[in-house]
């Protein structure tokens, strides 16, 4: 909790999905998938809501939104920004404990950040199980996660590859998960295996920002405003291609509760 809060107290999380092309792409693609499954008036729970970019947008569309956020500074911004957003309730809380909510209370549950910061298998499974529990039968649950390869490509080509490799992999190249990482990444199949035996039906796994974060710092990188809508449409045509998923940084695992 302290490590996570310290990071987000210093980071400008509120503008993260707006200030860069990879953030804009992540937001556009994630909203595309939400809109694929959501219905007017649905009861939506967002766990790990950050400063409320998705929750506020969905509330403005007429959804009945409940937002849960762990970090107090993020929650303060969410509450300030959501005053005119319509039906939205917000709570400080932990993804691994949603006991304030009844079973099958929501039509769609979004877990769009907590699994970046959970490391112990017990905590990861508790967060997944809680999200499934509070979702109604035949409802949709979406989990965001990070590709360990995307983390490497985006952060460790500045003369620091060995340090990144030591942090994210064992000596025999197994993926590592420990809290001092701050952000933990997965092999795609490794993440999907977390859901084996759970009462859900897998729908798809999709990338949400491709390789953009890995290359956006290049001096010659450019996607002009007039090109960006076409780029998003092109990316969506390939966002679920298995051979591309490891390259993306952020991903969505989408399932239906049985």
Characterization of the model:
- The chain is 36% helix and 19% strand.
- It contains ten helices and seven strands.
- A seven-stranded mixed β-sheet has the order 3-2-1-4-5-7-6.
- Helix 3 links the parallel strand 1 and strand 2.
- The mean pLDDT is 93.
Number of strands: 7
Low-confidence stretches: none
Count, helices = 10
Supply Rg: 18 Å
Characterize the biggest β-sheet. 7 strands, mixed
Mean pLDDT: 93
Helix content: 25-40%
Task: Give me the strand/helix succession.
Answer: HHEHEHEEHEHHHEHHE
List the helices and strands and how they pair.
Blueprint: H1 2-10, H2 21-37, E1 43-47, H3 53-60, E2 64-69, H4 72-81, E3 88-92, E4 106-111, H5 121-133, E5 135-146, H6 148-155, H7 161-168, H8 188-193, E6 200-207, H9 212-215, H10 228-238, E7 250-257
Parallel strand pairs: 1-2, 1-4, 2-3, 4-5
Antiparallel strand pairs: 5-7, 6-7
Helix pairs in contact: 2-10
What features would you highlight for this structure?
single chain, 258 residues, alpha/beta, seven-stranded mixed beta sheet, 36% helix, 19% strand, globular
């Amino acid at each position: 909790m302290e490590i996570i809060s310290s990071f987000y107290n210093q980071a400008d999380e509120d503008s993260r999905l707006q200030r860069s092309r990879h953030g804009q792409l992540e937001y556009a693609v994630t909203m595309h998938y939400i809109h694929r499954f959501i219905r007017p008036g649905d009861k939506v729970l967002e766990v790990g809501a950050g400063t409320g970019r998705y929750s506020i947008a969905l509330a403005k569309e007429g959804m009945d939104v409940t937002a849960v956020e762990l970090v107090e500074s993020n929650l303060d911004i969410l509450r300030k920004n959501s005053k005119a957003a319509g039906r939205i309730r917000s709570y400080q809380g932990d993804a691994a404990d949603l006991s304030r909510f009844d079973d099958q209370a929501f039509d769609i549950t979004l877990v769009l950040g907590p699994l970046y910061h959970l490391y112990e298998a017990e905590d990861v499974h508790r967060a997944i199980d809680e999200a499934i529990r509070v979702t109604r039968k035949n409802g949709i649950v979406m989990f965001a996660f990070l590709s360990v390869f995307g983390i490497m490509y985006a952060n460790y080509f500045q003369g620091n590859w060995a340090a990144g490799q030591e942090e994210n992999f064992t000596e025999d190249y197994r993926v590592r998960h420990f809290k001092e990482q701050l952000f933990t990444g997965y092999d795609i199949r490794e993440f999907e295996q977390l859901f084996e035996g759970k009462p859900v039906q897998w729908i798809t796994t999709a990338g949400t920002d491709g390789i953009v974060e890995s290359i956006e710092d290049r001096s010659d990188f450019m996607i002009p405003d007039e090109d960006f809508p076409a780029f998003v449409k092109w990316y969506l045509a390939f966002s679920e291609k298995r051979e591309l998923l490891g390259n993306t940084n952020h991903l969505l695992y989408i399932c239906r509760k049985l």
